[in-house]
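Hi support team,

I'm opening this ticket because the web form for multi-chain structure prediction keeps timing out on my end. I have pasted the exact lines I submitted so you can reproduce it. The total is 744 residues across two entries, so I didn't expect it to be a heavy job. Is there a limit I'm missing, or should I split the entries? Thanks in advance, R.K.
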Amino acid sequence: MTLNRPSGDTSHLYDGKTVRSSAPSRKKLAGQVGSGGAIPQDAIPTVEIPSFIESLLGGPLVPKMKFLPPDKMVQNLQIGVYGVLVALAFLTYIISPPQGTIWYILTGSLGLANILQLTIIAGATVLGFMGTFRRDARLSLGSNLLFILAILRFASSKTSLSNDLFNLQGSPTMLSVLVVVYAVLLIMYFELSNGVIRYSMLDTSIRTNEVYVMNPKKIVSKYHRSLIINPVLATLLAWFVLSANTILPAIVGVFSGDTAERMRESVELTSVYGVALGTLFVFITVGILFGLNLPTHLQRFRERQAE
Amino acid sequence: MWSRKSAMLGSLAVAMYLLGLTLRNTQLVTIAVVIFVFLTWAALLGNHADVASSGRRAEEWSGEEGVALGNVVAMRKLSSARMFEDGELNVTLRMQNTSSLPKILEVRDRVPEVMRIKEGANYILMELGPRRETFIEYTVECPLRGFYSLGPVTVRIQDAFGLFHKEKELHVYNDFLVFPKMEDLKETFVKSRVPKIFTGAVNIRQPGPGSEFYSLREYFEGDSFRAINWSAYARSGKLMVNERERDAVSDVIIIVDSRAVAETGPVSRNALVYSTRAAASLAKYFLGRRDSVGVIVYGDEVVSVDRDTGKKQLYVILTKLAGAVARGNIPLQVVVNRILPHINKGSPIIFLSNLEDDPTIVNALRDFRARNFDVTVLTPSSLEFEFDAKRIDRTGYEVMKTERDVLIGELRGLGVNIMDWEPDMLLSTALAGARGF
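Hello R.K., no limit was hit. The queue was backed up. Here is the completed structure from your submission:
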């Protein structure tokens, strides 16, 4: 190795030798010597930064994907995920017949589209099981994406079933209920599979003394309550939004019976545009409430009540 | 604030909703609506509101945290504001909920990155009841010297599913100082050649009243009988007396190289870390012997602590050493030119540097030697640190080691007491080596 550096002022003392009087700079040298590119471990302070997938799933408390064996809470959540996963897979198969899927459009074959659709649903289920069992966020995320892919259909506005086991096709109300239940199950699956990861992280970090938890029972019970209350309320509110085609004519009927009747018979109102109209009304209301800073006022009210 | 998870769900819902409308697919719209509702409900429960959108004036806005975190108070107490490296600091964090509602909070007390949590945790998930307070205790280990600050305390409140959260930084800061750790020295072998007016504890290589043996000489009338060396008398048949070395207060100047190049190597093992520890140990030793010690730290500027004695001086020196940061590239010659007029001729000078990237070192030390200063150089080898850390290969190491040896040899030729201080060598061993023991 040659170091092309100017000689120091004492080099004349060493006749015939190419040495310098001062030691080389490590900084400059670092770029010249071959295998020294790696930064030593203890040169960098450990800063825990969650990966993209970790933060996508809610942001971990401690970004370590190697968990200790699951505690009872995590095991219960895993059992919950398995249950929801089975129900979700079944419902996905029911409400997403191969007609209208992208596979059908691409292949033109109903049989092939059916096989592909079933493969995707099966893949989503298997990935979901594996992700939950191994507590691997990447597999769970893959499962979520496959479920979303399975439900994407370029079909008509009417809900159709691939297998009408319970004879629901004739009842639009029951079909709507089925879709709402499906949607709630989908979200609950997202939440529960994410909950498995989050609580594994929390449990691991508690047991490794990285996080200290005070009153864990209260914290866990709040989560359990939310697991029940949130889906129920989401179902009710969604049902309210989706019932715009009956609620709107009823409201209009107070002022004009004829107009209300015309609305009831309107094809548009019973189609997807009716749902869109209902959504618009509800979310305008929600927007106004948020604009009026309702959550803050609600909080203040609760604080005053508790005084 | 939205989390990535809620942003992802929101985007998914918008995409499904628009796609559903475009394709006239009720299923997609229904799923999108359910996701919207779920998000809205979580936001409502989490009391997440964009306060700015309420139309209130900026001065009325109480911050991102809103009401929910408005009544959370934090206080902190440290067991000590000063400690030595590898010392432990006990932190007590007091969290108060002054509101009348219970809160589930995530609390994180920010600790400097180089610190290690030894006991307890600085990250707490807690349920804090109404008008309650709690004490959180944890212990941090401080492995590296420096000025540090604990804080702020970050408090977060979020909904059960982690979709929305609100954060508040409680600006509670506690500063503390970590001094470089010191090695107990029994002997430094550094002796002054110049007496000063006041007697003290440092030998100055002249016979006189003192405690260290200097030489034997024949007895003269008036010599104390206590000074007679009876063994020598038995050997030679003449009365011989022990002469002792004169003790006197002496000036000791310690120069610490804190140029950017001094920090070459791992964070915990580099020349600057070793130099500051050595300087602290030497200062303690000399001040303990009632010497007058001055310290010069140079990097991007020349920082000096004037010569003085006593415990207060040790504290001043330790504070300066704790704050030494590897910056700049001032040549040693500049430092020497600046300090030469101000130091007593013949005073011991201890120079702590890895001797790198400064072509003026030889000339600067020659200037010291020319004025009969007793110069000791301890040079922690950055080469060893980097080789141990596998940052340089064997060939590069050998070449640079040879060059370094040549430089050390050259300085030794100038009469400088120099020692190539290898990482695992004790300071006392290095000092003894420098003095040829």
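A quick check on our side: Residues 153 and 362 of chain B are 51 Å apart (CA to CA). Let us know if the file doesn't open in your viewer.
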